[in-house]
Structures are given as structure tokens and as C-alpha cells.
Amino acid sequence: MFRSKLTCLLRRNKTVNPFSNVGTSSSASRVSNEPFRLSHILLFSSKTSCTSFTRNAAFYGFRSLHKGFSFPSSRRMCAAASISPSAKEGVKFLVTAGPHAQKMVGIWLFGSAAWVFSMVILGGVTRLTRSGLSMTDWKFTGGLPPISDEEWLVEFEKYKQSPEYKRVNKGMNVEDFKFIYWMEYAHRMWGRGLGIMFALPFSYFVRKGYMTVQLGVRLSALFALGAGQGLIGWWMVKSGLEEPTSEYVHPRVSPYRLAAHLTSAFGIYCGLLWTALSVVMPEPPSDTVAWVRGAAKIRRLAIPVSFVVGITAISGAFVAGNDAGHAFNTFPKMGDTWIPEDILSMEPIMRNFFENTATVQFDHRILATATLLSIGGLWWATRKLDMHPAIRSLVGSTVGMAALQVTLGISTLLSYVPVSLGTAHQAGALTLLTLMILLSHTVRKPSPILLKSLSSSVARTASNVIKS
């Protein structure tokens, strides 16, 4: 029923180009049907003006990256093209009520993504301060925190029954308990606040008819995943409230559940960020034919590199879940050896990659090195390509962030995982993933009608130059 009502509301406005005042039926006939072949185009004008199609398509989020950049000089031939109005009419916009609505929805989605980013960082602080197990019960809607001394004593007595208090924090006073309780309470309520901040604008935009069906369904799925994130979080916390199997083992949450909780958060963040970019940048920057070809080559490399970055970030959850950062606090060797002797001591062998402290840290080191090398290789392989200046800047920024992230990781390990460096390292992982998403989105394939219009415009310009 909810899906049918949502679809009914969203279909009030069809997906049209909100930036065209008049749409003509003959516009499509002006688009060339010739194949898109660069070898047939010779253009000797070094100062041909390039009209940016993406700026005319309400390129709000990416527009600031254009400032300060200049177009390629006359040192090489440039196949430039002006995008015809007919191509603009073929763009599939996710927001259909004009540039103002598009800007409003974009700001809201970017704000939601930033909120999720802060949630991940706050969750990292909660884990590093061992605050996550301070609240021994959970309600979906939450509740008021303890106010009176009597209420605080009741909560403290509940915590005293937990394995963490008995084995780690025995003798803790009420004031110290209040600190870890407030940390966990803030993390939970910050997540509930995100749900409200997302749901209210979403309802408003749907009722106003700003969104297409595609955008509405996508955001509904992200909202449902966000609601389920609270359940995943409590499922994770419950594992830490159970008695450990051995008296020598400190109570902690299951690394599998921690990885599921972090992966879900990353998935929500990536979905929101990608959707926000698609709203404000419906087409990638495609000013010239050469830039389109360069973006295609970068795209073939950026997608697998993004996968490596994501896997490395998730492996960090198993490092945290096994407290592996507090072992082998040396670099580049792990203790006195390059490879620990007990790296495959568990049976079956696959358990070692998720539960063995030595193996988990070793894997994370290998993946981090692979991430740095793959991003460096991406920069090296694309450094001579003809690409949009903003894309070149993104590639360079990603290399710098990867180097900084590796430095943060090594510093965190050598310092025995202080809260400040551990938090910075987690924030660095999400920042690096953000840059890879932005790069992958910017080099995505343009729509077929844009490619045809670009090819047609270049062919007409080349013909005019030859005739003159």
C-alpha cells in the first residue's frame, strides 16, 4: 500500500527537462545518427569555445570545482563541442520541478550524507572509549536519559551485571560510568535524529511532486536500510553482553556483527552520496570528445580501485572487533618477523581471516598497501590522458588522501591506538571512500543522446573549419 501511494504521488510529474522553456518535436531530428568515431574528426582550432553542458544542467555540487581551472592550451589539437539544446531535452533528471527544487533536494541529501559520516565517526569514538556496552537495554524509539541520582544508580546496577564491568571495569564509580553512558546515548540518539531529519523533508518533497519515481523508490530503500541499522546495532551490542567462552577473554562484540554494522553504515553513506551527486550533476562533464574518451579509460580503472578501498575499510572492522590494533605494535615487521607463526593456527582455516588477531592485522596491512599502490597506479596510468581539469584534481587528491591514510594507520598502530588517532584513521577511511565515489561518479558514461549531440556538434564544427 505504501509503495502504491508513493508511486502515485511521484508520477504526478513526468521526467522532463526543467530547464527548457519550450520542447520541440523536431529537436530529435537534429541529432546526428552517425557513429561516434574520433578518427574521422580533425579540428585545428585551438581556441574553440566549449559550452559546459553540465553547468546548464544545474551542476550545483560540482560547479565549484570548475572555478580556478583553465581549458587546455593550444599545445595540442582539441576536439571541442558545444552541446545542442536537443541533448539537454533528453537528460533524465531525478528532480523535475526546476533548478530551485533541484538545489533544495541536493542540499538535503548532501546534509544527510554528512550526518551519516558524523554517525560513523561518533561510533568509532564510542568503540574506542569502550562505551558501547554501557547501555544494557534498547528501545526502537529511545527514551529520556537518567536525570536523578536514583535513576543513575539503577542504570549503573544494570551495567554491574554485565561481563564488561566484572572483567574490565570492576570498581568503576558512578561518574566514570556517566561518561561512557553519555557516549553511547549520544550515538543512539544521533541516529534517531538522522531518521527524523531524513523523513520529514522526504515527505515534503514527495507531496510537492519534486521527485521522480526512480528517486523516490531509491530513497525509500535507503530509509528502510537506515531504520534497520538500529536493529543491527543492538544485535551487535547483545553479543558483547554475553559471557565470554573463557575467563581469560575480555568481553567484546562479535567482529562479524561489528563488520555488518559498519558495512551497513558505509552502504547508506555511499547510497546517499551517489544519489546527491546524481541530483545535482545529472550528466558528467563532457565538454570535449577527448575528455569523454579519457573519462572512459579512467572509469575502467576507478571501479576496481574503489572495490579495493571498500574491502580495506571493511577489514578495519575485523581489526577493531578482535582488538588487533593492540597486538604487534611494530612496523613494518610484526614483532620480530614479517609473517607471524600462528597466522593459520585456527581450524577451519577460514576462521583465521576473521577471528585470528595476527591474521586479521596482517590482512589489513596487505590490503592497505594494495590500496595505496592501486591508487598510485591509477594516477600513473592516467597522468597523460586528456581529461577534465576537475577530474585530474580529484585523482591527485585521492593519491594524497591515500598516503595520509596509510600514515595515520601506521601512527595509530605504533601509538597503541589512542582515541584521537584511531578516530582520525576511521574518518580517513571514509574520506578516501568519498573521493573514490566522487571520482567514479564524475567519470561515469554520459547518456547516449549527449554522446550523439557531442559527436554531431564536433562533426559540424570540423566541416565548417574545413570549408573555411
The number of E-state strands comes to 0
How would you characterize the largest beta sheet?
none
The string of secondary-structure elements, in order, is HHHHHHHHHHHHHHHH
State the helix count.
16
For the termini, the CA-CA separation is 64 Å
Low-confidence stretches: 13-88
Report the structural category: mainly alpha
* The number of domains: 2
Look at the structure and give the mean pLDDT.
Answer: 80
Helix content: 55-70%
Shape: flat
Beta-strand content bin: under 5%
Which assembly state applies to the chains in this document? single chain
Protein name: Cytochrome c oxidase assembly protein COX15
InterPro entries: COX15/CtaA_fam, HemeA_Synthase_type2
Pfam families: COX15-CtaA (PF02628)
Keywords: Heme biosynthesis, Iron, Membrane, Metal-binding, Oxidoreductase, Transmembrane, Transmembrane helix
Question: Which properties best describe this structure?
Answer:
2 domains; 468 residues
Quick structural overview:
It catalyses: Fe(II)-heme o + 2 A + H2O = Fe(II)-heme a + 2 AH2. By secondary structure, the chain is mostly helical.
